[in-house]
């Protein structure tokens, strides 16, 4: 099983070629299972997602698929960046934002 955020999921999807598709996976968004009725293109950036199993096809012909989990893990390693979701007390928000900016980070959502 792979845990990710909505922001990372959308960045991963944006990196794939046009016409890609996935199937036979189990995806949850904030502990709610996707039964084919969720719009995974518009999950909130701070959503907590889990991905289990699945096959990722790079085109619509449905041949030569690779594991969705493996492909996303490989993409993570090659991207050279990471996305994190942070929870902090309101009175410390500006301190955390300042520290992230000083470290060269950027805010996605």
Characterization of this structure:
This protein is of the alpha+beta class and 109 residues long. The chain has one domain (2-83). The chain contains 3 helices and 5 strands. It has helices spanning 6-15, 68-79, 93-102; strands spanning 2-5, 21-29, 32-33, 48-57, 66-67. Strands 1, 2, 3, 4 and 5 form a 5-stranded antiparallel beta sheet that branches. A hairpin with a 2-residue loop joins strand 2 (21-29) and strand 3 (32-33). The protein is globular, with a radius of gyration of 16 Å.
Features:
single chain, 109 residues, alpha+beta, five-stranded antiparallel beta sheet
Poorly predicted segments = none
Number of helices: 3
Span between N and C termini? 25 Å
Sheet-strand content, in percent, reads: 15-25%
Work out the helicity level.
25-40%
What number of structural domains do the residues give? Answer: 1
Structural class: alpha+beta
Q: Summarize the biggest pleated sheet.
A: 5 strands, antiparallel
Mean pLDDT: 89
**Overall body shape:** globular
User: What string, H for helix and E for strand, traces the elements in order?
Assistant: EHEEEEHH
Radius of gyration: 16 Å
- Total count of strands: 5
């Amino acid at each position: 099983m792979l845990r990710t955020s909505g922001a990372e999921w959308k960045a991963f999807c944006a990196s794939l070629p046009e016409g890609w598709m996935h199937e036979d996976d189990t995806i949850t968004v904030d502990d709610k299972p996707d039964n084919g009725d969720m719009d995974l293109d518009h999950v909130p950036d701070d959503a907590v997602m889990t991905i289990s199993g699945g096959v990722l096809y790079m085109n619509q012909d449905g041949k030569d698929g690779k594991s969705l989990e493996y492909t996303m893990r490989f993409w993570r390693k090659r991207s050279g960046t990471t996305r994190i979701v942070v929870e902090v007390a309101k009175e410390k928000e500006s301190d955390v934002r300042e520290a992230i900016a000083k470290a060269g980070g950027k805010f996605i959502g």
